[in-house]
Amino acid sequence: MGKKIFKPVGISSKKGQRHRVRMIRRATLLRKRMPFYQVVALDIVKKICIENGWRAFPERAIFCKANRRWYIADIFVKPHSLIIEIDGSSHEKATAYDKWRDDNLRLQGINTIRFKNKEVESPNFKMSIMGSLIKLSKALDISIDELVGR
């Protein structure tokens, strides 16, 4: 027997539909078991989103068309296709994978902002998120007022 060739699974195939359902179920399960720092970050992000008329979704399954794979984002902010990831100790060894994933999602127009657990604990976390949004607005070459929706 020869080597098996990996074929990416699309959303339209039956196998792709089964995989989609599996990822959504996994995201739902992760939503019920969110780590403490992620819950804290979600509360802060939701407050910012409510102030600006956005929506934040915890543990959201996202299909990346660039490499035809599913990812689960810690927090997904809807109108700006923004992912906020809270990196715990498990991400210290997975920096190459995180960079690869972020690059693939960026090709699709989804930006990722990463925070460590220690940053979430800090009293300036809300300001860090707003600072990251300012950096993002400069990277996207739009005004912060446009990004915030003012």
Q: Overview of this structure, please?
A:
- This protein has 150 residues and is an alpha+beta fold.
- It has one domain: 3-Layer(aba) Sandwich (Endonuclease, Chain A), CATH 3.40.960.
- Helices cover 49% and strands 20% of the residues.
- The protein is built from six helices and four strands, in the order ααβββαβααα.
- It has helices at residues 14-32, 36-52, 95-107, 117-121, 125-139, 144-148; strands spanning 56-64, 69-77, 82-87, 111-116.
- It has a four-stranded mixed β-sheet, sandwiched between helices.
- The longest helix has 19 residues, at 14-32.
- Residues 4-9 have low confidence and may be disordered.
Features:
150 residues; alpha+beta; Endonuclease, Chain A; four-stranded mixed beta sheet; 4 strands; globular
